[in-house]
Design brief:
It is found in: Membrane. The structure is a single chain. The protein is mainly α. It has one domain. About 65% of the residues lie in helices and about 0% in strands. The chain contains three helices and no strands. Helix 1 runs parallel beside helix 3. It is extended, with a radius of gyration of 18 Å. It starts with a helix and ends in a 5-residue tail after the last helix.
């Protein structure tokens, strides 16, 4: 319905503004000294790697539900792969920028 699409649009804009605020704030007030190289490849061991992998897994959990809406899209063989690939690229880029901004603000060991 139109109401749910409007709510979805408003929430998306809110999320993008929030991410933008974190990214701009991190690059403005962060310090390059916080990007010092930690001891070794995984300073928090295998647990840190698995904790990060679990977060990444749950971040991409909703992409399978996009394919169920294929019958409601115009030209799904073209639109669906383009939409999924585009959204993954945009979200990955934003999360990389946000991760860098947060790393500039807080040292890795805090």
């Amino acid at each position: 319905t139109k109401e749910s699409s409007m709510l979805n649009l408003v929430m998306t804009i809110f999320h993008l503004l929030f991410f933008g605020l974190i990214i701009v704030g991190g690059f403005y007030s962060g310090s390059v000294r916080n990007l010092t190289r930690p001891k070794g490849l995984a300073p928090f061991g295998a647990r840190g790697v698995f904790d990060g992998a679990a977060l990444v897994y749950f971040s991409y959990l909703g992409y399978d539900s996009v394919s169920t809406m294929a019958e409601e899209i115009k030209n799904p063989p073209l639109t669906l792969p383009l939409g999924i690939a585009g959204s993954v690229a945009i979200v990955s880029f934003l999360y990389c920028l946000m991760s860098l901004a947060l790393s500039l603000m807080v040292p890795y060991n805090e």
